[in-house]
Amino acid sequence: MTATAALALRLASSGLPVLPLRAGKVPFGNCPICLRNQCGGRPNMKVPGRCACPLPCHGWAAATTDTYRHAGEWAPYWERAAAVAYHPGGAGLTVVDLDNADAITWARATLPPTRTVPTTRGEHWIYRGTMPSANGVRPGVDVKSRMSYARWLGPGEGSMAPLPDEVRALVVKAPTLARPAPFGLAVSGAGCECPHRTPAFLERGLAMAEQRITAADSAVHATVYRAFLAVLATHGRCGCLTDAHIDRLFTAAQAKGETLRHCTDAWANARTRLGV
Fold first, then answer.
1. Which are the contacts of 122, defined by CB distance < 8 A and separation ≥ 6?
2. pTM of the full predicted structure?
3. Strands (DSSP E) along 23-109, which ranges?
């Protein structure tokens, strides 16, 4: 057993949901059974480990405390793993990822002290409590909690404080003026049934986007962006998309080697271009 595998077993035994990362700090790609939503597990992505596949598919949602699984079906993955990751939200935690010295200086002046873990370029500040995850909430600062994963870099130092309002406020978007929808695009709440809520129509659009990403042999960044743009152009203004739908697209992109940061940036850029 490798040191990485032994560490994963110890963390899982302590109640921390963990998963293996391959080189580049990204999860292992989905197995053939789970590609293109064949497993049916993605509608349950908000509940880690719900997919019936015994392998570490679906990124953060696969994180588990099941030591039997880690020592059994996952053993070959741990033998090849470059690092251990964990799902902060699944452990009831939020990680404020400070990526440089300026971000650390800001945190020390703004946030209440809590447990800190040194990283390659900065620090992780860990709080008790969960919230939505978001990247780039300010220069050099990411928030990792629900629907995200963080690398395990050690237990850290200091007492863990409750999640403060100062951190929650980082992902609260300021109100924006409503933008008129393009001609012919139904808007949820405008007094009519949104046609995009037809399950088959929405599912077909998501499946096509997943297939486009999965089939990409080159220019993966551009392909992911175009797929996100196509989905948002059709479904972005009417309230059809849920977190589970978005995570399906992110999972397909990460299976092709995209990082969570790249996915988040591509999604944000697509929204900005369309004004949604």
1. 97, 98, 99, 100, 101, 103, 104, 140
2. 0.64
3. 26-27, 83-86, 93-98
